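Changelog entry: the ABC transporter ATP-binding protein record was regenerated in this release. Current contents:
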Amino acid sequence: MENAIEVKGLAKYFANFKAIEGVDFEVKKGEIFGFLGPSGSGKTTTIKILTGQLDPTEGEAFVFGENVSHLKNPKARKRFGVLTDNSGLYGRLTIYENLKLYCELYDLPLSKIDEAIGFVNLKEESKKKVATLSKGMTQRVVLARAILHEPELLFLDEPTSALDPVNTLHIYEGLRALNKKGTTIFLTTHDMQEADTLCNRVAFLNKGKIRLLDQPNKLKKQYADATITVELTNDEKRQLRRDAAGAEEMYQLMKDNRVVTVHSNEPTLGDIFVKVTGGELV
Ligand SMILES: Nc1ncnc2c1ncn2[C@@H]1O[C@H](COP(=O)(O)OP(=O)(O)OP(=O)(O)O)[C@@H](O)[C@H]1O
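Regenerated structure tokens:
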């Protein structure tokens, strides 16, 4: 499968401070790839390099085979969409008018505006001025703008950080639909649940370095402990090992009709992150 993104030995120093160092990864076309890490781990710095907003100190990065140093050319940026916190919206214009400006810039039919506004669940607010919107609404307008031209690759920096649970789920649904239509998604988040729900593969970033990279399910299997928890009719919770002795005990408990529930002790991505990095996810 062709790669949408390739990163080799990437580093960014701010004076003597190493924001990221020795970062290597690839994102395949069609993937939703999660770049996960706590505040200050280097997620935004990486997105800024990948979208041509910052030059790396060392290493190389390619988007659709093109060195990102060429992305200063606006035409080259047409193939991707970006959602970061620097919104670039016009406060005195309405949501609709802001999106119309972008339609004109990208030479898109105005019908795309309604699609994008529906995507982010803002139909009723479309005539409101952006300056009057809440943080979560503004975040959704920025997302609408990022997907307006149905980019082949979408960079999302913490896309749901200001959203309520209902709109978060709405955005997840929309992102999955967009991905099904062919958009590759590079997503940064510190929300491990979000990453687990959306991503095909995740990279754990801590203090500027990638510590682990794989599919969420593989990681959970790899780090699962060898026990299951059985809840019994007398409210007792018993830990059974996944071996012959555990199977024997389970057989007996089931035969005696004492089993209420059985749970595998699978770790969350958050548990694995803390285990691997020794750090907290804040
Ligand atoms: N322009 C800059 N000058 C100096 N230091 C910077 C600059 N930009 C980022 N840094 C530092 O680099 C580190 C990584 O920052 P970055 O914004 O990439 O983190 P992040 O993982 O996106 O964090 P958050 O989740 O809080 O957005 C931080 O310690 C930050 O203070």
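The chain is about 35% helix and 30% strand.
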